[in-house]
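Notebook, bench 3.
Goal today: get a predicted structure for Deoxyribose-phosphate aldolase from Actinomadura meridiana so we can plan the truncation constructs. The sequence was checked against the plasmid map this morning, with no discrepancies at the termini. Length recorded as 307 residues. Pasting the sequence as submitted so the record is complete.
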Amino acid sequence: METLNGGAELRAFLRGLPGVDRVGAEERAARLATRSIKTTAKAAAIDLAISMVDLTTLEGADTPGKVRALCAKAARPDPGDPGVPRVAAVCVYSDLVDVAVRALAGTGIGVASVATAFPSGRAPLEAKLVDVRAAVSAGAAEIDMVIDRGAFLAGDVEKVFDEITAVKEACGAAHLKVILETGELVTLDNVRRASWLAMRAGADFIKTSTGKVSPAATLPVTLVMLEAVRDYRAAAGRQVGVKPAGGIRTTKDAIRYLVLVNETAGPDWLAPEFFRLGASSLLNDLLMQRRKLETGVYSGPDYFTVD
Ligand SMILES: O=C[C@H](O)COP(=O)(O)O
C-alpha cells in the first residue's frame, strides 16, 4: 500500500500506461477460448475450478436459512462424493456474515462480504467504513469492496485511491478484493488503469464485477487484468489475485478462464490464493460435468441441491 503525495505522480503514472490493443486482446481471448481440455486434464481443471469458487448469494431476498444451505453446499458440494473439493469462500452481504461464519465453523472456508455500499459504491466514505468494520468484526476473512466508478470516470483518481487505502486499513487482517465494475468502465484502457490504481492502493485481489451490471465478467477484460497483475508483480514484487465474477455459469466458461490464467499471468496464479471465480450458479454445472466424467452419464440438474 502506498501513500499519495498530492496525486500528481499517480495521475502521470496512469496516463503513461500503454493503451490496450482492444482488437488484439479480443482476438487472443477468443483464440485461447478454443483450447480443448479433455479427460484427465479436464477432471483436474474441474476440481481446481471448484476449489476456486466464491459461492455467492447477493440478493435482497437472502435469508439466514438460504445462507446456511449455501454454506452446507460450500463445505460438501456433493454429499454423495466426499472426494469433491470444497469451495474457496462463501460471499454474502455484511448483515449475513455472522450466519455464514457460524455455519462454516471448522470447515476452513472463509466468509467474504461485499461492502462499501455494494453494488453502486455511492455513499460517504464513513458509511462505507462502518460497513467494512461491521463485516470484519462479524468474522469476514475477505472484503469485496466496489470502487466509486463515478469518481474514476470523472478523473478523480485520488478519491478512488484514498477510499481503497482507507478500506484496506479498516480490513485489518481480512483480505481486500477491489471490484472495478468493468462493465461501467467503458474501455479496456480504463480497466488497465483501474487495475493498477487498485493494486497500488493495496488491493489483495482485483475483481471484475458486482454481477449486477451487464456486461459482467468477460474474457478480454480478465485478460487485461491478468496482464496487470503479472506486470505489477514484476514491478513491485507483490502478487495480487484476480477474480472474474458475474455471469460465469458453465464448466466450459470456468475452464476458459483457467486457460487464460495459465497463458497470461502464468501457473503461479492457478491457486485459490490468487484466482477466484465469483459465481452464484456455476457450482452445479461443475458437479454435473465432474460426475459425467466419472460415470459417463449426466445426473441432471435435479440431482444436486440448488446453489
Ligand atoms: O460476485 C459474484 C457475483 O455477484 C455473482 O454473479 P452471478 O450471479 O452472475 O454468478
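The chain has one domain: 20-295. The beta strands are 53-56, 89-93, 110-115, 142-146, 175-179, 205-207, 241-243, 277-279.
Flagging this for group meeting.
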